[in-house]
Write a structure and sequence with these properties.
3 helices; eight-stranded antiparallel β-sheet; mainly beta; single chain; 18 strands
Amino acid sequence: MRPLLFFFVLALAGCTTPPSSSPPAQEASQPQSLVPGYPSADEVAAQAQAKTAPAGRWSAISDFKGEPLFGNASLIEYKIGREDHPFKLQLVVFDDRQFDLKVIDQPKDWSGGSRISECMQGAAAVAGVNGGFFTPEFTPMGLMIAQGQRTGTWQTGPLLTGAVVVTSHPQILWNAEVNPQQARELIQAGPRLVDGGQAVPGLDRRKRSTRTFIANDGGHQWLFGLAHDITLSELSELLTTPGIMPAFTVNRALNLDGGHSSALYYRTNAGSERSFPGWSTVRNYLAIVPK
């Protein structure tokens, strides 16, 4: 089946059109960003060392990259090491006041992992990742609601412990909190990674793989993306270690899928598209679309 310090640019403008190609003289009319811009790689590394030195477990960040995406989302890529093991992360950060979070159904079971680009283009999405688990029969594992269409059935168990749910706004909810009748978009997934800002105990510490996950700060700020060659327990710890992610405090995080299914797509401010397709065909994707 299918840590760390970073800063991101999230201008709370709520616009749905590409950034203006007006000359510099007109830039003063653009909304002012409410958060700091990207730091330099040296600044990030120095602060990471200062923050993480007491713990003695996480090494300095390298290969840091920040890039604005269409519609005021951001791409963050970096590497961080712990106990001589490097972890690579590729994250898309967004504000739910500017973007809708959508479940994209992909029912073609032999379409290949590269279908993510076609699905994202068809949805006019700025970015997306592979969604939840699916069965050998290529049906969603658990309930999926995509643009109001229901597929699969609600399930509970040790794996499907939460869901990404969109009613009037997106939420990460645990099973007991979900009312599927109120959702217009929903995908069951798991396991839980972070709850109330705390790492969820008892997660697997042995198997390292690429993981797709989604996180929220308890308000309007979200991120989703890929963490490479990492266990579920390590990912949970990474997301909750103080000083690693001071610009984004994770309140809840949920594992989506991973392994050969892992895929990422994004569209930059300049209009170029990048995709990191998985090796496997997947049943669904999560995407962000400008409001």
